[in-house]
């Protein structure tokens, strides 16, 4: 079997130095749709270096994501076909506000391997710290189709009860046709998001948008709509990727506001409100 769960979890963590600057932050923000309208003061805080605020989801690409999901797929005990890989979910915990420029140490490991029957789920954990201490912790849940069924632990379901009542806010975000091509410049070079032939081999009619791009677009909508544009209020951000998004589509983002958290559901408008992000929670101050 291409995945040896025990060997993967027991493997030594991979540690690497990462660095980023304000240009990387600006490029990421543009990749998730910031800068429209270009002269809007609320958008300039994402695009102008003299007043730059860092959206916490930048942590998923800082230093080009090193050690990163793709490198994690070559950890001991894991040998998989990239065409069978899908990003199933993402959890991000922010320990301190992200600086616009920095260097840090990223330590990546396989925290768990779950057997979902028709698929295996790898939990790839990346912990990042600089000279002042921990900055963030990322958990990426990666589905590998066709690699389950060995009788292992199924793991937690992660499903939440649906939010009650009507959402407090609903916003829509139209995606660019080249959204995936722009976003991938921040470091996720999986050809699934750019190469039509590769996308067909993977079972899609055309290249799909990165799940983490939708993830960033959604967090920006929550921060701008319910958190007064204050990126430092975000403490954690969890989601399950419930469906694909195609560049050029429109995202409908529904938000239910609580005392210290926001529940979110995201769907694709043009495909009958097909679910895109589910079980999504932003914890905040």
What characteristics describe this protein?
285 residues; alpha+beta; ten-stranded antiparallel β-sheet
Secondary-structure map:
Blueprint: H1 5-10, E1 14-20, H2 22-31, H3 41-47, H4 69-72, E2 85-94, E3 102-115, E4 119-130, E5 133-145, E6 169-174, H5 179-183, H6 196-201, H7 211-226, E7 234-241, E8 250-257, E9 261-268, E10 274-284
Antiparallel strand pairs: 1-3, 2-5, 2-7, 3-4, 4-5, 6-8, 7-10, 8-9, 9-10
Q: Summed up, what is this model?
A:
The protein contains 7 helices and 10 strands. By secondary structure, the chain is an alpha+beta fold.
Question: How would you describe this structure to a colleague?
Answer:
The protein is of the alpha+beta class. 19% of the residues lie in helices and 34% in strands. The chain is built from seven helices and ten strands. It has helices at 5-10, 22-31, 41-47, 69-72, 179-183, 196-201, 211-226; strands spanning 14-20, 85-94, 102-115, 119-130, 133-145, 169-174, 234-241, 250-257, 261-268, 274-284. Strands 1-3-4-5-2-7-10-9-8-6 form a ten-stranded antiparallel β-sheet. Strand 4 and strand 5 (133-145) form a beta hairpin. The longest helix is centred in the last third of the chain and has 16 residues, at 211-226. The termini are far apart. The model has no long low-confidence stretch (mean pLDDT 93).
Count every helix, treating DSSP H or I runs of 4 or more residues as helices.
Answer: 7
Counted beta strands: 10
Shape: globular
**Approximate strand percentage:** 25-35%
Strand order of the largest sheet: 1-3-4-5-2-7-10-9-8-6
The N- and C-terminal alpha carbons lie at a distance of: 45 Å
Structural class: alpha+beta
Order of helices and strands: HEHHHEEEEEHHHEEEE
Radius of gyration: 18 Å
User: Which spans of ≥5 residues are poorly predicted at pLDDT below 50?
Assistant: none
What is the makeup of the main sheet? 10 strands, antiparallel
Mean pLDDT: 93
Q: Which bin fits the share of residues in helices?
A: 10-25%
